[in-house]
């Protein structure tokens, strides 16, 4: 059975649009982190 994950995009003061170069759909100009595979309580992918 395949496991489908959704990346968690985190807004940061120093963020920008650079993650769009890796194919991520960014909603704003302050995206600074992408949690692609995560089981963290603050952002499970």
Automatic annotation (TrEMBL):
InterPro entries: RmlC-like_jellyroll, RmlC_Cupin_sf. Coiled coil: none annotated. GO terms for molecular function: isomerase activity. Keywords: Isomerase. It comes from the Bacteria. This is Mannose-6-phosphate isomerase.
